Amino acid sequence: MINFKQIARVVSVLLFFIGGLMWTGIPFSFYFESGDAEPLFLSGLLTLATGGLLFFSSRNKGKSVNKREGYLIVAIGWFSMVGFGMLPYLFSGAIPDVTDAFFESMSGLTTTGATVLNDIEAVPRGILYWRSLTQWIGGMGIIVLTVAIFPLLGIGGIELFSAEAPGPTSDKIHPRIQETAKRLWGIYVGLTIVLMAILYFAGLTFYDAINHALTTMSTGGFSTKNASFMAFDSPTIQYPVILFMFLAGTNFTVTYLALKGRFQKVLKNDEFKAYFMFVCITSLIVTFSVYAALKGRGEAIGLEKAFRDSLFQIVSIVTTTGYVSADYTGWTNGLTMLFFIMIFLGGCAGSTAGGIKFIRHMVFFKNSYLEFKRLLHPRAVVPLKLNGQVVAPRIMTHVIIFLLIYMMIFILGTVVMSVMGYDFMTSVGAVATSLGNVGPAIGKVGPVDNFAHLSDAAKWFLSFLMLLGRLELFTILVLMTPYFWKSN
Q1: How far is CA 473 from the centre of its chain?
Q2: Which of 19, 53, 251, 395 has a beta carbon 3.0–4.6 Å from 348's, enabling a disulfide?
Q3: What 3-state class would DSSP assign to 116?
Q4: What is the pLDDT of residues 342-365, one digit of tens each?
């Protein structure tokens, strides 16, 4: 039987975190005299009060979290965070419409980066900081942070961790899940601080540096500028951001091993090698294509600029960050299609990136290739190996089902958007980028556009796809099956 008091207890802790973090935007409001201190204070107070009511109304809650409760906590927790996360937008009047505020909050916490704001720079500074902070919260998943402090509540968190990060790998930095969560957040916080310092000394204001550090490490892509990183057209700023986007899209276990000096294990990681090689090879191809295309149109730019724009946009899309340093849809039709395909890649499993993830593509393509060998040698045992270890049939089945469901949702979602009256390019772009938590796409939701022009129905639909993609499909879809609600 599902223990709803336990669920309420955990959700209350999430609301405590959200409410407290809202107040961290108040100093920016006072410093810039932007007039949004009161909305931030009231939003935080209401969130904390709701969390308190839930906490004290669920005292007799028991101490175990089973699988069903884990999934419900993640789903209800995310919806609660999104719902309360939109309060600063509504109370301040920065986004007065409930649909738009919910969309912006969902986009932030799922690290999608799609926005309905037409003039970002006109948003009060405290609210704009909160907008960036929502992405940082969602980057690693506040559920994992909560797992790290669950011993204080007397409950275990393994079920929550598996529901929040249901990828095909189960690598753990430490056998105790709480210790794993602490180490992950230690790396996450540390890299955020380092990037903030680099950007500040590279010439950004402290405010811009902290905002972009938050949204880079979360692979979120929200910027304080209308032009995103086209407003910071400097190698000393863009190259560090490229590096940290790449690190944010790398499995944090791999990053941990690198920090511990265990480089041999890093170099033996098949997913990291595929991720690194793809970025390198694609960047070279795109660089020369962009250089030649612009030169042919009389818009010649230097080779370094062509390389930087190409590398920046490739890393931004592959890691699902969604920053924009150039309009890739204005290069060539072929490159536009290439960037659209990249939306489906995603970074590495165990990173803050969204999308399908490289490891799933590797399992699928390796297994498909080995199937030809199995056809020629039907009695032979031809195992699939990754990182020198045999991949269990259960994982292969999981990957194949995930890919099929992902593509089915993408196709059905495109049909839904088309029925709503949007053209094909906008429909496929909006669905792909929402499901992959990327941000920019193609059509009328390209890198120099936003989502403000979409109907309310389209925004609610895409918001659902963002959550579905952020929690990698199964965490939400399992709630829609009759098996989940059966007592046995």
Answers
A1: 14
A2: 251
A3: coil
A4: 999 988 888 889 889 998 899 899
